[in-house]
Amino acid sequence: MKTAIRTFRKSHYGFHAALLILKAFALHAILFKDFNLLKVIALEGCFIFLLLGLVEGLAKKGAPYIYLAANALITTFFAAILLYVTWFNTIPTYHVLLEIGQLGAIRDSVASLLSPLYALLYLDIIILLILLIAKKYPLVRSEAKSPWKRRTFLGALAVCVIVFFYYKNVEIANPVLAAESKGIFNYEAINIAKSSEPKSAATMANEKADPYETNQKIASIKGIKLIPADQRKYFGMAKGRNVIVIQGESFQNFLIGLKINGKEVTPNLNELVKHSFYFSNLFQQVGPGNTSDAEFIMNTSLFPNDNTPTSLTVGNKEIPSLPKVLKEKGYSTMTFHTDKINFWNRDQLYPDLGFDQYFDESYFGDSDKVGMAASDDVLYKKGTEALANAKKPFYSMFISLSSHHPFVIPDEKKTLDLPSEYDGTLIGDYLTAQNYTDAAIGRFIEELKKKGIWDNSVILFYGDHLGLQDKALDDRDQELFEQFTGHKYNLKDRYTIPFIVSIPGKTDNGTEVSSPGGQLDFMPTLANLLGVKIDHKLVHFGQDLLQGQNNLIGIRYYLPPGGFVNDHIIYYPNESFADGDAFSLNTMDRVKDFSKYETSYQKILTLEELSDSYYAQLPEKE
Ligand code: GP9
Ligand code: MN
Fold first, then answer.
1. Which of 39, 298, 326, 367 is the 20 to 30 Å CA partner of 394?
2. What is the pLDDT of residues 211-242, one digit of tens each?
3. Would the CB of 404 count as within 6 Å of ligand 1?
4. What homologous superfamily does CATH list for 211-616?
């Protein structure tokens, strides 16, 4: 027995497995503050033994090298997870991992954040390689038929199968928490399995259906009416105007009107709100594609995929979209973002959405860099130059970036005077970054006015998604938040983003719309204001927020499947509808009896599946 253990330990199989389990343990400790070694052995160990078991089967010759390569590969998987979570606060799905090349766009800044850790992760491989070259390699290949090896492999297989099925249908909203309790490998395996599950026939979109029929079906599920154009409020209020959509990185709604020590954090947007439609109860609906999902939703009013960034699934599809419809009306279309175009697959996303032109790092350069790319000031300054030369009317999108996590703004750009208790806090950095976002927008507005573009345009501003994950806030952050808002950071704070629509000369008196809405509603709301009829052209799952109809908003990915907001509550299921959690939209108090809202739950699942199947059956490009 003892000899068997020793042989096993000295074998490539046993030794590399032990090293990788240690690394998995380090990963759990760093990412989740989870120090349960037994759990790591069970959840991650089984997959490590399984994968190395396969390697053992293959590694007839050159075993040391093959094992080192396998170790390096799995280590790189861990490093990628670490990198991604540090940067994005979420676990990458296998699709994202397969497209890990796009992380190249942020490699430099992230590497500086993590480099010593990286070196440590690969240290064993480097040492073993040196020993191998020096012919002092300590590991041997255990006998081909070693029963230990076979038993470990079969045991690992059995454990993997058990944990897979045990956790398969356990829905946990936050992907980081899901990976923590299900295990990282297991989380990925479950995602792969789920993405290939067939959808139910009841929610299949009819390929041949007229968009109007599908829109009617959607409206009747929601319990609303498709109102004919001549009966709509505000129809055509911004007819023929240029469109300038500003998508604010990580911009949450609680920032609007917020004052710290009597000083406004976002004075320019606060001023804009006074002369705009301001939708103050607007929920984010993005999926794992975050920024790019927000772009996709703005232009399509379709649900994003629930476990794959939607932009990674475009490329071949003919996607009906607002830019395409506007082009038929004589609009030119363009979009601006200072990052590299291949990030989030945008080089395929933009043409598929119907943009004639896109401007990325190659246009903006990398001077005045903040975080990943050139600053928002560069975005707006060079963007305005392009707008001045563009064929009018134009439809344009500006995707801001400087306020991206980890919210680091160069000192010379900081204008927010925060009390010293905010020093070194995430919330302090967040407020500072969004204050810069706001200041840059203020300068943008001035520039648009100077160039004579402002008065002929309709200007939209919204946040793409949250910036402050609940989990990322430590006790100090939570206290500071409570201090300046008077309440604990809740689901509504987390998931609401501002939506502002300004039509200079028409909305000067300002109107607040406080009935709930979601990102999918942007496109139909804008289309109505532009006087563009979309019901017969574009299938849209969102609705025009200015018609005062009841609403039903699905939040997938950031809430477990079936999570929704209706006119009364925000709700998410746990294992079933009945054991879910519900909060009053007005007070955010817990609602104990929410049984009467089960129909909303069923409806939102139906709508999301219908959207998925509609997207899936879109024709391929000619
Ligand atoms: C990258 C930027 C970041 O180009 O848009 O996007 P996010 O991490 O917020 O999805
Ligand atoms: Mn974003």
1. 367
2. 999 999 999 999 999 999 999 999 999 999 99
3. yes
4. Alkaline Phosphatase, subunit A (3.40.720.10)
